[in-house]
Amino acid sequence: xxxxxxxxxxxxxxxxxxxxxxxxxxxxxxxxxxxxxxxxxxxxxxxxxxxxxxxxxxxxxxxxxxxxxxxxxxxxxxxxxxxxxxxxxxxxxxxxxxxxxxxxxxxxxxxxxxxxxxxxxxxxxxxxxxxxxxxxxxxxxxxxxxxxxxxxxxxxxxxxxxxxxxxxxxxxxxxxxxxxxxxxxxxxxxxxxxxxxxxxxxxxxxxxxxxxxxxxxxxxxxxxxxxxxxxxxxxxxxxxxxxxxxxxxxxxxxxxxxxxxxxxxxxxxxxxxxxxxxxxxxxxxxxxxxxxxxxxxxxxxxxxxxxxxxxxxxxxxxxxxxxxxxxxxxxxxxxxxxxxxxxxxxxxxxxxxxxxxxxxxxxxxxxxxxxxxxxxxxxxxxxxxxxxxxxxxxxxxxxxxxxxxxxxxxxxxxx
Length: 415
Description:
Rossmann fold, about 15% strand, about 425 residues, 9 strands, about 45% helix, single chain, 16 helices, alpha/beta
């Protein structure tokens, strides 16, 4: 690799050209030596409408390598990009050296996250609207084929008929938020979302900061079993009462081909962190992720104020969804201000509700229907394009036998 000084000098000399400067994708901080020269060049152009000549540049910055004046711009730019990548990789590796000695697993996780961030950062950020525009017709045709097929929808099928009827389920990059007061059934909705995804052959990762793997598995057996035509009773599975063992064996045999990964802890750690979740996603490559109890997830910077942590947490999960192009559902808890369990909580009733509303593509809140424990109400607080925003959805609710389904013709007049 050519020296930093030589290549950066070649880049600077080539940037005394309007077309090259216009398309140059880097900033002052991307230079290791000649960032000050680059700033001078763009300030000069902004002020005078023309570029300083090579003599002026060399007079003001004599450490520029004049021999690089004739280097081809495309060549210099390619080497410059490699040099930036080299510095970032070295810096990332050096940043975990001390951690390797005391906590190698955390060091590995941070190193992988850092290297992934570098990989994302060196990709092109901007796509021309008109470039390859004909591909958009092909993309529409693909969507039309899906729309007219038996499958009939794009993305991950959801638990809600109203959303599925739009033809678009949970899409790559989506952040979906669900919140409610304790004991309303948030985890059961998360379980049903997971069961719906794996029933439709979507590889799913279920991360719980609240429930154990055995508890999650029992609930999944009841809910997924219902979707597959089995009738199990959660109380019987939990307390060891009589069940039809042959049917249970049939079900357990049938689900062997389905891909659901359940996690309730990270080995060697005191808590589940965003970093460890990102590592699990990279390792297992799921198509859908559910995080039950996101308010219990930790982030590395413990010195932050509570609201800053909450804001960073939500946006870190959203960035993970975008970087991996997968939908991520997060389940959280409304606080005591949502006293009425018969009214859907508002974003102000959630610790990071404001951040969630900004970052998420879909936000749902849930409550119980007054005088009817067999029903739940979901309010669509936010929906991608807005067509479902503010809508109330009624749910038939008998989790003991796995019944969780929307009632599309429910009469809300009495609600």
